[in-house]
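Blackboard transcription, Thursday session:
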Amino acid sequence: MTLSSGKYNYTHQCYKLLDYVPIGICIFDETFELIFWNKCLSHWTGIAPDRIVGKKLNAFFAPLNTPSFKARIEHIFKGGPPSIFSSHLHGAMIPCKLSDGTKMVQQTMISSIPGQNAGTFHALMSIKNVTELTQKAAEYRILKNQAVEEVKLRKKIEADLRESGKKILDHQQKIIDQEKLKVLLEMAGATAHEMNQPLMTLLGTIELINMTDDIPDNISSYLRQVEKSGRKLAEIVDKIQKIRQYQTKKYLKDISIIDFNESSV
Amino acid sequence: MHISKDQLEAIKELFNIGVGKGAAVLNTMLSSHITLKVPFIKVISSFDFRDELKSFTQGSISAVELDFEGRISGAAQLLFPKETASSLVAVLVGEGEDMDIDALRAGTFCEVGNIVLNGVMGSISNMLELDFDYSVPEYIETNCENFMKNRGGRIDSHVLLAKTRFCIDELHIEGDIALFMEISAIHKLIEAIESQL
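(Written on the board underneath:)
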């Protein structure tokens, strides 16, 4: 029976509207006999309707012969729910090549439609070309992964910069502390040296006065106080001489002073 | 509405047969081994279902919906938190842990949902001798609030909710199969079950 003969001519007229959609559509019965083949599929496959309508669709396209495919669509001929064949999990049902020679990626749905006889159902296979979408999704994923890697790298660089900044500040602080200590030691050395000479003179003179007879009692008492203070000064000078580190203590509200006890060894 | 324990057991049996068929189909298609189980089932109002969804996830929901019409009309859905749906698709397509669901991944998830829901609806249709007209399966991604708003939230709308456990290799995933029906439709379903018991 040819396409122009009564049966297929009638069905072609019924489904003619499907020739105007940009989706590959074909209709076949339970025996896989093709009833309708739209212009889009004709264009994609290069198979004109008069070469394929009325013939077994699975004789042309091997993927339709697999047991798993047949199991997925057997309920269609009983009026069951549509079956989806996604591009991720299946190859093309009707393999086609694009103009650049690459394989078309397809997303297919098979729905049940009423047949010509009451109580019978046919399968309407609609195929969407998702090649471009697949390429775009793959490109998007590559770009997204690159962006994620760049963000990771940027975060690592920021963390490294923060760490380096902290190290520089620590190093600067160490240099400042060393400079302070250097100045302190120079000051302490000079102070001790300059104060020692008059202090020795002071204490020696007090000793000489103490050896003198007939010192009035009240003068002797003053002299003891002077000697005590002199010895206290000698202790302070001794501590200044032993300063080896920079330690301060609170003096007034916002002012700190060198702590001789903590700074001297 | 009151449903006896025996009636619920019968519905659960229908669902288990359906998801079993779905698992068999998935196992012939995929390299990973999948088992599907329905540990429990309940009938709740659409308002209670909203709370159920909120406890299910605070984020987005990924669902596949299959509307059906006939003596009993309603909508069957397979629902997952979006992250779970992403993990499921990632395992099935072997593309690693990418949480995006683009149009192609939505198509893959839609196919998985389609297989499971076809199993369940086929089981209901065959065992209870009911014929349905089906719409095209659709992928839905939204949050809990919008999900219920889009369903209209009719007062007499009820949900036959079946907890569904997917075990795929080391991945254990839980989702829900929900049949949205009006009370009268649930009564008709129970009548159909009673006539077969």
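Lecturer's comment: The helical segments of chain B are 5-29, 46-56, 82-93, 103-128, 144-150, 183-196.
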